[in-house]
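Quick start: what a row looks like.
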Amino acid sequence: MKKVIGLLTAVGLMASPQVLAGTVTVSGSTSVAHVMEVLAENYQNVSNKNVEVQSTGSSAGIRAAKDGTSMIGMSSRNVKQSELSSDTKEIVIARDGIAAAVNNANPVKNLTQEQISKIYRGEIKNWSEVGGESRPIVVVTRENGSGTRGAFEEIMKLQRTINGHKVTAIIPTAQVGNGNGMIKTIVANNPYAIGYISLGSVDDSLRAIDVDGVAATDDNIAAGDYQIARPFIVLMDKNAPSTAQDFIEYIMSADGQGIVASEGYIRVQ
């Protein structure tokens, strides 16, 4: 388990960054938080400055950066122009794959993007339709507001338009897990489940399947061969305190990007 650096309380989130003098406040995507906590811990060791990280989801992190309740917001999906102010800066700090993950006991090793999309739409309902056992597929998805869910739906074309509004096409009977950890627990304990998680969160408790015959690896993502991938973005006001800007500079430095790579993500420089 990675050490969580000074989780913010609800009261802390309601305070402005200026009140938390000397502390860099970061909130948002649970996927980005996985590496951000490690970056924060290392930065604290070398700078003696405190960084507080909270997992609140990408949409909440974007709002927090925009309204100033956090100095830095985290998003694991592309940010819409309507979610930004003219003073908001976006910085891509890493790239990550989204793994389609199954239980270690599942014999299915490869699925196409089309098959995965059909599974999540409810058009493929049994593992026997894709080379597995004759068992119903248990579909597992992330909660609304999750950056991982937003990116997955966009990449896998799991959105439809109703009355001019985009809505999810994922079957309503899908089990919902809040965060990568819960998705991993559900899939690791159900041999007939499929879920999607940040590639950097994959461990021995479950298995990332190949997609279109391509393994979910850093090299394949960097080469553009593995298609289910997204950026890790931080957002900050152009007039943010120098302490927040210093932390971003550390993340983008050779040391910071080395940590990004060591945690299983793709460095951007």
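That is the whole record. The radius of gyration is 19 Å. The longest strand covers residues 88-102.
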